[in-house]
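The following record pairs a protein chain with its ligand, S-adenosylmethionine.
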Amino acid sequence: MRLRNIKGSRETIAASPFAVCEEALAAYKGRWRARFGGRRLFVEIGMGKGRFIMELARRNPQDLFIGIEKYSSVLLRAIQKQEAEQLPNLVLVRMDAEKIGDAFAEGEIDGIYLNFSDPWPKDRHAHRRLTSGRFLERYRPLLAGDAVVEFKTDNGALFQFSLEQIAESGWKLLYSTEDLHRDARLMEQNIMTEYEEKFSSLGHPIYKCAFTKDV
Ligand code: SAM
């Protein structure tokens, strides 16, 4: 997935009307809906090439969707697809989720999607996992009271770690499954991500949970 060093990718992102780069975020914080419209605002962190969030945006034209990706070279693929389709309710942002507080104001987000986040298997890198307590605390103030965070992965160890972090950080678990693709009710609304398609076709079970602030 990390197609680093595609020549000119940063320049292409800076010039694209569909993308925002980290350096420009101050102008958008607290103003996303005023600038782009949308009843509610949903964010996917680590969207990769954007298949999931593009489909969400197609299905929900009344809401605004923001896809965040750390690497320009990966984001470029999503921009190319968005330039072809021009969904009016989708904005693509190049930024590291570490800085999510620079992008959104308190209570501005109505939901976060974390799909197949990097597992960072070494203990000493646990703080880099997007479901670590450190990241959950960054998300908390940015979420509206009823906002839901949804997390999918094929990595059992990351899933267990995430459930522990959710409980330890005082969030409320809404549901959890260790085999999403066998849960007919959850599958009704499921949108496959690129990684989900790849791993499920290899026979890996897909884990999913959803949680909310326990207010
Ligand atoms: N969500 C996609 C899917 O399910 O097909 C891509 C999954 S891929 C394993 C993880 C993605 O998250 C990569 O594109 C990676 O660059 C991005 N990512 C990892 N850490 C990030 C961070 N701190 N901030 C933003 N994006 C990040």
